Amino acid sequence: MAEQGTFRAGGDAAASSPAPGVPVASGARRAPFGARLREAMLTHGPLCVGIDPHPALLDAWGLPYTVAGLEKFSLTVVEAAAGHAATLKPQVALYEAFGSAGMAVLERVLKESREAGVLSIADAKRGDIGSTMAAYATAWLSDDSPLAADSVTLSPYLGFESLRPALDLAQETGRGTFVLALTSNPEGASVQHVGGHESVAKTILNAVQYENLRKTAVASVNTVSDVPENRAKRAPQENCDQIVTKGKNNTLGSCGVVIGATVSDALSQLEINLRGFNGPILSPGYGAQGADANAVAGVFDQVSGNVLANSSRGVLRYGPDVSALRSAMQRSGEELSAALYG
Ligand SMILES: O=C(O)c1cc(=O)[nH]c(=O)n1[C@@H]1O[C@H](COP(=O)(O)O)[C@@H](O)[C@H]1O
Prior knowledge:
Elements: H1 33-44, E1 47-51, H2 55-60, H3 67-81, E2 87-90, H4 93-96, H5 99-115, E3 119-126, H6 130-141, E4 151-154, H7 164-173, E5 176-182, H8 189-192, H9 200-216, H10 228-231, H11 236-246, E6 255-259, H12 264-269, E7 281-283, H13 293-299, E8 307-311, H14 313-316, H15 322-341
Parallel strand pairs: 1-2, 1-8, 2-3, 3-4, 4-5, 5-6, 6-7, 7-8
Helix pairs in contact: 3-5, 3-15, 6-7, 11-15, 13-15
Bound molecules: orotidine-5'-monophosphate (OMP).
Protein name: Orotidine 5'-phosphate decarboxylase
Catalytic activity: orotidine 5'-phosphate + H(+) = UMP + CO2
EC number: 4.1.1.23
């Protein structure tokens, strides 16, 4: 049973040898994803801009629902985000819907994000058995793949260890993973809440915590909540700096989780206390799904410095004008910074 008030890594140490079939990455080693993400969040704030090219949004932008429209929409978002957002999260399903031509657009989106210096999260929600998982890992996380992203979302419901090829390849290539834990949709509860106080969600969170401890020796992340006396006094940017300077080894791990901004009741019902959690927390639900910045801050009170809040439709509805998109990103970023760090 987890001690109340702290987040604990669960389970015994598992063997760290890579699963058979894990591909070997080529190319120069880059800084770990967690460190790169931390830096991007310090520079641009905790907003992740989702690229979700829904038919209705393309229509609202005056674009046809074609491959050309998909490309124009996506590259406009990349252009607007360059220098203004920490991360971009293209929703892979909406490219897959166009078949191979859509996936070619996604390749270009990932390449242009990289060239624009914006970290990418391929929202592919992949998960499968070992050898198949190794192929997914190659596709999203190896240096020479046309679909290589800085990180990818993963579904752990074939067992957390089935993700091993992706977890290990991400570590090897300086990339990251976000594992679904408590998703923002109401249906998620029927699986993720099973087990009550020893829930499936808690098992996943503990596995990710342990993965980061094992991989990066990140002992624990000092969070904003460690310095409550200073919270009210600082501007958002200074507050971010404080998160880093408060502890020298408070780097984020490169294995993150997905926890919706809509799940605050679930955290208390399931007795999950995130304080001390050591990975980034991708949190969809802000914006179009109804959570405002204060709600995000309320859910993640204990770990505000780890949170990367996603907004897709909430920002995208301001297009196609690039400066209007940028203003929306800036407004959301400032609102989130104030709520999470202020
Ligand atoms: O992994 C995700 O990003 C994700 C997990 C989750 O629990 N809920 C969730 O909405 N998402 C994704 O986040 C995006 C949310 O979009 P908006 O609701 O338009 O901001 C979509 O691409 C979803 O697929």
